[in-house]
Each structure stands twice: as structure tokens, then as C-alpha cells.
């Protein structure tokens, strides 16, 4: 693979093409459409990415990095009690989905369901993302435990994965319902039930 | 649309083509591949289905009908206490996913994430399936409440959707992890936490 001539083109491919993959799905999006929406010649795609699969891995990684950059600080905000941070964190993610009309969903769940059967590279990337997601929530839940907000007998790691699974299921149902009722259920019932 | 000449062909298209859609996804599966795997000429597809979207709605409906027929009776088995039925029900669904190596996932979640952005028909079908799923669990949880297994102040409908979302999230993560740890989390921690 030749050295990319233009980092700006690469970035535009990831941005515009990533939007297409997020909204329409990986399999429904061709390389031709990715280059077309980014306004670059089709052949140049392979100057920047080995394959559509490699492109998907980068899109996924950028998506996760942006989630971490945007919402991660909420979990580390020591001006709030740890459990309030967790509630604010998921409420902010729900607002993110609300702004997109609930139709796009979460790229992590989308790719988990659509792309893992055909791409081991995407599957392994997703497994690493789940581990990081779990670790960041676990750390905040440990603080909650240290401060007596969470009972001592509880397992923060167990709660963290349970929250992630329940939230991803809510995102899935929100794509069907096209309203925030799945997030109301998560915030009003599931989250409190899992941390008490 | 002409009257289907051969119900057996129709059924084979749904069966074999439905497997393709379940394992590879809706967008990755073409009509050509569906007719090819069913061993019928491509043109005949449209004698049976108006479009690939209409085909997907029927595949989804058949999938749900088979889930109801296979696992629904567990929820109505009066030889077991209601909460034990709920636990057995989800454990049996987890075994179903285990038999498929966790790679296929649940067609409800798969289609929710992949197809709802492009198909209002699939989205409405899924919304109806979610309602039926919720109703069947709610009924069993009401029995649990009537028998004193579930506290009187709990809302069975709220618990039902929470269980569905958490389970679908576990199915999603199982496609990534390719093992039953997400179901262990659901059965060992989430389910008990939501019904107590």
C-alpha cells in the first residue's frame, strides 16, 4: 500500500464514508459510494485502505475514540458522585441517539450484528472496545463502592457489563420504536435496579 | 403478483433464503443468491414475493412464529413457578444461540439494526413482534406477582421490556465474544436483579 498522499483525503473518506456505513450499514455501502460521497476517485480508496473491511475497522475505532473523548470525561468528573456520573453518562449517550432520530443506532452494536459473521478483524476490534467500555464503567463503579454508594458485596465489573448489554439492547429497540421509551426504561428502571 | 404455483417452492425460498439472511445479513444477500440456494430460477422469486423487503418481512414473521411455537410453551408451563419459567425461557433461548455458535444472533436484533433504517415495513413488523414478546413475558410476570413471587409494587410490563432489552444486548455481545459469558451475566445477575 503506497504511503497516503493526502491525510486530508484520508480523513474525508473516514468521515463521509463512515457516515454512510453508520446510517446504511456496512454491506449496503460500496467502495464506489464511499469515494463518491468523499469526492475522490474510486481507485484512490486503496491508496488509503487495504480493503473495505480495514476501512470499517478504522471507522469503528474513530467512532469509539470520539465516544471516549466526548462522554468519557463525565465518568471522571469528580464534581459529581460516581453513580450520578454513570446516570449522566448514559443519559448523554441517549441524547446523542435522540439527536440522530434514533434511526442510526450505535456503530458498536450495528457492526457487532452485521459484520462479525464475516470479519474476524472487526470482531476482535469490537471485543477490545467492549473491554475498554467495561473498564471505564468498572472504575467509576469501584469509586461508588469506595464511597459507600454501592454495596460492598457487589461486583463492579459484573454491573458494568450488565449496564452495557442493557443499554445496547435499548439502542436496538429505539431503532424500532423511534422514540426514547427504551432509554426511559433504562434510566428509570434498569440502571437503578442494577446498582442497588 | 400471479398466484404462487407451488407452495413448496415458496416454503423452500423462505427456509433456505431465510437462513442466508440470518447468517449473512439482509443487505449482503441478493435475490439471485436466495433463488440459487433454494434451487429455483431467479425470475420466479417475484411470483412469490413482491420484493426482497416483503421477503424479509415474511422471514422475520416465520422466525418469530417459530420462537413462539418452540419457547412460548415454557412461559405457560404451570408445572413450574412463574419466575422459574422466565429463567428457563431465557436459558433455552441462550442454548439456541449456543447451538449456532453465537455467530448468527437473533434475527429480531439483526433486522432492527440493519434493516429498520431502510424499511418502514420491517420496522413496523419488528415493533409488533416486540409488543407480543413483551406481552407474553408480562403475563408470566403478572402470575408471579399474583403468587407472591414478585413484589406487589413492581410493574410487570416494565420488567418485561427491561428483560428483552438486556437479553438482546447479551445476544449482541455474544456475537462478539463468541461464548456464553453474556448469557451467564444475564442469567446470573441481570434477571435476578430485575425481578427482585
Descriptive overview:
The structure is a homodimer of 196-residue chains. Chain A has helices at 7-24, 31-38, 45-48, 52-75, 82-99, 107-114, 120-146, 156-177, 181-195. Chain A is mainly alpha-helical and 196 residues long. Chain A is elongated and about 60 Å long. The model of chain A has no long low-confidence stretch (mean pLDDT 94). The interface between A and B is large, with 44 and 44 residues.
**Largest interface by residue count?**
A-B, 44 and 44 residues
CATH class of the largest domain in chain A: Mainly Alpha
Beta-strand residue fraction of chain A: under 5%
Number of domains of chain A: 2
Which properties best describe this structure?
homodimer, 196 residues, mainly alpha, Arc Repressor Mutant, subunit A, Tetracycline Repressor, domain 2, 2 domains, 0% strand
Short description:
Chain A is mainly alpha-helical and 196 residues long. The first copy, chain A, is built from 9 helices and no strands.
Topology:
The structure is a homodimer.
Chain A: H1 7-24, H2 31-38, H3 45-48, H4 52-75, H5 82-99, H6 107-114, H7 120-146, H8 156-177, H9 181-195
Amino acid at each position: 500500500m503506497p504511503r497516503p498522499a493526502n491525510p486530508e483525503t484520508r480523513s474525508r473518506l473516514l468521515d463521509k464514508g463512515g457516515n454512510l456505513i453508520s446510517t446504511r450499514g456496512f454491506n449496503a455501502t460500496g467502495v464506489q459510494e464511499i469515494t463518491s460521497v468523499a469526492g475522490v476517485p474510486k481507485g484512490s480508496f486503496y491508496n488509503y485502505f487495504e480493503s473495505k473491511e480495514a476501512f470499517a475497522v478504522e471507522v469503528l475505532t474513530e467512532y469509539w475514540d470520539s465516544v471516549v473523548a466526548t462522554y468519557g470525561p463525565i465518568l471522571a468528573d469528580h464534581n459529581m458522585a460516581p453513580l450520578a456520573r454513570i446516570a449522566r453518562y448514559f443519559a448523554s449517550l441517549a441524547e446523542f441517539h435522540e439527536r440522530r432520530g434514533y434511526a442510526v443506532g450505535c456503530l458498536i452494536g450495528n457492526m457487532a450484528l452485521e459484520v462479525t459473521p464475516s470479519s474476524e478483524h472487526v470482531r476482535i476490534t469490537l471485543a477490545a472496545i467492549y473491554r475498554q467500555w467495561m473498564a471505564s464503567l468498572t472504575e467509576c463503579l469501584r469509586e461508588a463502592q469506595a464511597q459507600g454508594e454501592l454495596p460492598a458485596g457487589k461486583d463492579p465489573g459484573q454491573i458494568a457489563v450488565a449496564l452495557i448489554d442493557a443499554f445496547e439492547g435499548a439502542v436496538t429497540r429505539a431503532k424500532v420504536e423511534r422514540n426514547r421509551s427504551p432509554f426511559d426504561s433504562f434510566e428509570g428502571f434498569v440502571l437503578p435496579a442494577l446498582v442497588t
